[in-house]
Amino acid sequence: MKHRFSVRVYYEDTDAGGIVYYANYLKFMERARTEWLRDLGYEQDRLMEQSVAFVVKRVEMNNHAPARFNQLLSIESQIVELKGASMTFRQEIKDLQGQRLVSADIKIACVDPTVMKPRKLPATLLGDLSSGL
């Protein structure tokens, strides 16, 4: 199942040439993953109260074309691997015409934030994520 989230490029997201600074794409993708969880009924602050947090373990990102100031972008997110304590997202950022601007595979680990050690995903969350594969 693909999740879609829209974001507009603000001036603060760009470099002096009006092009999105590459690190900001990672922020856009983080927002998209957070909104996906929210759409599934999971708030990250509530998860943290249950000693569940997520950390980025690995990122492989490719820049295909630039995004510019004031553009509306669509971020498509899809889980391509789901394990007991981690998941890998494939995310693409596209413009309104569907041109792929950025693609990334991002591995997320589930950790207990009190000790910063890996922990299994809660069974209900794992089930909800699995149903979308």
Kindly describe this structure.
By secondary structure, the chain is of the alpha+beta class. The protein has a single domain, classed as Thiol Ester Dehydrase, Chain A, CATH 3.10.129.10. 25% of the residues lie in helices and 39% in strands. It has three helices and six strands; from the N terminus they run βααβββββα. It has helices spanning 22-39, 44-49, 123-131, and strands at residues 3-8, 53-63, 72-82, 86-94, 100-112, 117-118. Strands 1, 2, 3, 4, 5 and 6 form a six-stranded antiparallel β-sheet that branches. The longest helix has 18 residues, at 22-39. The mean pLDDT is 95.
Report the radius of gyration as a whole number of Å: 15 Å
Task: Tell me the span between the first and last alpha carbons.
Answer: 6 Å
Number of helices: 3
Total number of distinct structural domains: 1
In short:
With 133 residues, the protein is of the alpha+beta class.
What is the topology?
Blueprint: E1 3-8, H1 22-39, H2 44-49, E2 53-63, E3 72-82, E4 86-94, E5 100-112, E6 117-118, H3 123-131
Antiparallel strand pairs: 1-3, 2-5, 3-4, 4-5, 5-6
Characteristics of this structure?
133 residues, alpha+beta, Thiol Ester Dehydrase, Chain A, six-stranded antiparallel beta sheet, 3 helices, 25% helix, elongated
